[in-house]
Design a protein that fits this description.
Chain A is mainly alpha-helical and 144 residues long. The first copy, chain A, has helices at residues 5-19, 28-35, 39-51, 76-84, 107-122, and strands at 55-58, 64-67. The longest helix of chain A is centred in the C-terminal third of the chain and has 16 residues, at 107-122. Chain A binds a DNA duplex (30 and 30 nucleotides) through residues 4-6, 25, 27-29, 38, 40-41, 43-44, 46-47, 50, 57-65.
Chain lengths: 144, 144
DNA sequence: CGAAAAGCGGACCTCAATGGTCCTATTCAG
DNA sequence: CTGAATAGGACCATTGAGGTCCGCTTTTCG
């Protein structure tokens, strides 16, 4: 699996924040509840994203999290990298710089090609392409 | 990490077998030793590949493993799939068939696009593209 | 036939990463 | 000051990868 549950959570949280960016900070509790993500865990993820500057966090009463970037300006590629680190496709298990087993090892070439392809797909999408919308019949969220 | 050490081992073993296909079965011990792979572990991998028909195994004295396919006819894609199972990029952590959180979830689309791209790169290479060749000065392998 | 040389395959072990919890500190509005 | 909020460090549990062990079966050869 390339992308972890953490990534899923983080991405969903960002979608949620993107949707209500205009309305000031959203509390951790609200996000966690709405998206059914363990609160303490989500907290870690958002802290991480805050350090990277993707969200901004406000302490104190009426605090919470706000998206710090334009949804259309942050790509999936960037988000995923910020949450999970760079997508490593293959770790050469021989010695990194010079493997003794193969004369000329095509592996690295192939796998970097794979990485490029992944990157190019993920770079074509931005957060703006993924809109959070509730499906439930009740309108707890009361869309604008 | 998409591809495991197991994949690496398996691929290397296949390269090795491809190189000496003409010379009858190669024992597990020889492969393990030459490629510096834990013997018991390699055994599992080759057993698995034998079940899939990629190699053939012969029991008894003068037994061993032989490549059962034409190197140029088996793609990296096939090999990797046979060793590690299909490359799953993303597991949707909402309910599989219909996720309640997103109105229309682009995720699946994006990630299947990613999977397709990976597959298309890996399908362009066959085992024949990856030749095993010893780098050591001694010529134990004595190329044909 | 029987011993030795091979692979077969199930049970088991170990370790690190993932996913997750908890508690205390800090910050800030009212 | 107090309560509502995030920050962040320590900690815990489960899982899967990587790997080992050992007894069993098959096969060759003397």
């Amino acid at each position: 699996m390339i992308f972890s549950r953490k990534t899923d959570y983080g991405l969903r949280a960002l979608m949620y924040l993107a949707e209500r960016r205009a309305r000031g900070p959203v509390t951790l509790s609200e996000i966690a509840e709405k998206l059914m993500i363990p609160k303490a865990f989500l907290s870690k993820i958002l802290q991480q994203l805050a350090k990277k500057g993707v969200v901004r966090s406000l302490k104190g009463p009426s605090g919470g999290f706000v998206l710090a970037v334009e949804p259309s300006e942050v790509t999936l590629q960037e988000i995923l990298t910020e949450i999970d680190g760079p997508t490593r496709v293959f770790e050469c298990f021989a010695t990194e710089s010079d493997c003794t087993l193969y004369g000329d090892c095509l592996m690295r070439e192939v796998f970097s090609e794979v990485e490029d392809q992944i990157g190019s797909v993920l770079s074509r999408y931005t957060l703006a392409d993924f809109r959070y919308s509730e499906k439930q019949a009740d309108s707890t969220a009361s869309k604008a």
